[in-house]
Amino acid sequence: MKLKIAILPGDGIGKEITDQGVKVLEAIATKFKHDITFSYADVGATAIEKTGSPLPDESLEICKKADAVLFGAIGDPKYDNNPDAKIRPEQGLLKLRKGLGLYANIRPIKVYDDLTYKSPLKEKVIKNTDFVVLRELSGGMYYGENKVSEDGLSASDECIYNAKEIDRVAHLAFSMAKQRKKKLTLIDKANMFETSRLWRRRIMLIAKEYPEVTLNYMFVDNASMQMILNPRQFDVILTENLFGDILSEEASAIAGSIGLSASASIGEKMVLFEPIHGAYVKAKGKNIANPLATILSVAMLLEHFELFEEADALKTAVNKSIELQITTPDLNTSQKFSTSDVGTFISEFILDKKNVFTHI
Amino acid sequence: MKLKIAILPGDGIGKEITDQGVKVLEAIATKFKHDITFSYADVGATAIEKTGSPLPDESLEICKKADAVLFGAIGDPKYDNNPDAKIRPEQGLLKLRKGLGLYANIRPIKVYDDLTYKSPLKEKVIKNTDFVVLRELSGGMYYGENKVSEDGLSASDECIYNAKEIDRVAHLAFSMAKQRKKKLTLIDKANMFETSRLWRRRIMLIAKEYPEVTLNYMFVDNASMQMILNPRQFDVILTENLFGDILSEEASAIAGSIGLSASASIGEKMVLFEPIHGAYVKAKGKNIANPLATILSVAMLLEHFELFEEADALKTAVNKSIELQITTPDLNTSQKFSTSDVGTFISEFILDKKNVFTHI
Ligand SMILES: CC(C)[C@H](C(=O)O)[C@@H](O)C(=O)O
Ligand SMILES: CC(C)[C@H](C(=O)O)[C@@H](O)C(=O)O
């Protein structure tokens, strides 16, 4: 297969981790005889520094010309701590999501048996947890009108949704549930908000087309609790943009490490893959960031192109690295491997170079 | 002391649990020779059924004439599952908060050593957790304009804040931190929203008046993760209305049981105390609901009126009930006490009637 992948490292540790993603993709290409090429583009604080824009038009073009995007991370404390900054790295991510028409973010939460010790939850609570958070990505408060008064003493943000936006992601949610345990949970705050009630109305309609899927509802406050009290109850979670941001981060924490959480963002034409974690600017250049979430995002990329054997080879290699503790310090205390060590181990393992890391 | 308490049972299990609150307050009155009187008023689905309004004017008047309000719970699936209902129980709660000027909701999260086994978190993670969530209660998306289009195909909700609303609760947060471990965490999404940036600007200003308090910031998505990865890092959490709703529910889950989580809502003139949990309409009338969150809300009420000895007597009795497992089924598996058993045990214990429950 011929694949063109746009690599957008972004900020902080973004470069280090996407480098490992590329390394692993190159190993897959060699082993399975695919023609995978890469094009690089800037986004975020990095792009602001170079061009003044958090997403230069050229970067968006590079993405559009690719078959898929591999994204690193975005954000910089320099902007976070300055509430008056007008140009912000995150605008680049939003423009990218909009520009590529990415309307759904998929975050699978699966607990690795070897890593239940890393979870803050008790083993009996977390064991066998396996669900997916489907977050709407193109609407809600992220894209409504944001206002500040002239005197700077009041502000507002608007959460806005229309039926089309909801229907599109709802169909995806039902199809996913159909292929899994056939349970869909819509998370909203329909006892308070009009947008939530619009979500419920649309879902109730669409549910009729998927009689084999059991639909239930949960308020977002209750959901943030249920997620830790009984995560096994979930199969597919569907929710709006902001609730999805909060809940998917909570969900990845229960799985043991956010350093393992991958995600895919889906559009009509484009797809983007990225780790859930942030830019950890403090760790930048230290070669200590965990590349597994990025590498597992690459697995989702391969699966997207129906390269299942390839994805399996990659995941086997990741499992091996966890089993042998060839992992970064966040995942193990005894041995200390670097970001690039982990990427190298996984790609060499894919290439059957079993004699690498024999010093272990 | 002379105290007039308005009791608003609300919906579902509200009546059963506030009955225990009253029982315990009566025991305190007898034991410590206070003159505590009660007046009752309807709110929520119960009020809608009787009067058509989720908060009849009369109910608000009864509250205003009292020194404090003890609130049960609100909500009914009948309305939750009907996105088209125009009159809703929750409107009563919002009108009450507004009408009484309640601008801050305080939810202390403290882990009982005897109950770490109930927490979904590992003991090493949860042990010694002791923080307070301070949720702004009078603004944000709860009070912005909610709109649906004529054709019902689009909707919006507005999150709105002004400096005055933020300053008021921020001062409370800093004062609380000053009296505790001197650490304040503002939780927002300042990398995305104007209202969050307004929060940061105001807090930065106000922080100057409290040099002894260490202020730090956290994005809400990260906070939902940090809450379970490392809850001990928190002392006082300050956040806006909706984030507070989500995070305080998550926080009470980590403490072992939402059935134990009390809260106080503070206004310029009025105070309201309520358990964090909902109306559990399914359990209504079954005498199985855990009354401890309500009874611990009564402890907060006593502390508010500086009746510290009384609050201590109450809390000692609650600890005793937990120690002896004279608790409802949600907290223990071996013995099965009813809602009213637990209330009776605690009030009799306060009254030194040590021979009650000798069958244990
Ligand atoms: C960086 C930020 C704008 C972004 C979001 O909130 O969507 C991030 O938290 C994410 O989840 O991808
Ligand atoms: C019932 C509902 C409107 C309410 C809220 O969201 O404020 C509840 O969840 C709470 O936290 O008191």
TrEMBL record, chains A, B:
Pinpoint the Isopropylmalate dehydrogenase-like domain residues: 4-346
Matching Gene3D superfamilies, A to Z?
Answer: Isopropylmalate Dehydrogenase
SMART domains named in the record: Iso_dh
Output the Gene Ontology terms for molecular function.
3-isopropylmalate dehydrogenase activity
UniProt keyword annotations, A-Z: Amino-acid biosynthesis, Branched-chain amino acid biosynthesis, Leucine biosynthesis, Magnesium, Metal-binding, NAD, Oxidoreductase
Q: What InterPro entries is this protein classified in?
A: IsoPropMal-DH-like_dom, Isopropylmalate_DH
Q: Which is a Pfam family this sequence falls into? A: Iso_dh
Signal peptide as annotated in the record: none
- List its EC numbers: 1.1.1.85
Question: Which top-level group of life is the source organism from?
Answer: Bacteria
Question: Which PANTHER family does the annotation name?
Answer: 3-ISOPROPYLMALATE DEHYDROGENASE
Q: Which family does it belong to?
A: Belongs to the isocitrate and isopropylmalate dehydrogenases family.
The protein, known as:
3-isopropylmalate dehydrogenase
Species whose genome carries this gene: Namhaeicola litoreus
